[in-house]
Design a protein that fits this description.
By secondary structure, the chain is of the alpha+beta class. Strand 3 and strand 4 form a beta hairpin. The longest helix is centred in the middle third of the chain and has 7 residues. Strands 1-2 form a two-stranded parallel ribbon. The chain has one domain. Helix content is about 15%, strand content about 20%.
Length: about 50
């Protein structure tokens, strides 16, 4: 059986060479590129709330 896989391109923490990473500006700039998604960091507060 012959499988064909396609690579996906993700903007790591947004367009981090154009703006501070993990910022709205970096995410907005990343969306101007032909990407498949944006990777960001999510952490939980002590009371279990997810924050970027």
């Amino acid at each position: 059986m012959n499988h064909c896989y396609q690579s996906l391109i993700y903007a790591h923490r947004g367009a981090n060479r154009e703006a501070a990473e993990n910022t709205r500006t970096a995410f907005d700039r990343a969306l101007s590129y032909p990407i498949d998604g944006i990777e960001t960091d999510i952490q939980l507060t002590r009371d279990g709330v997810a924050v970027l």
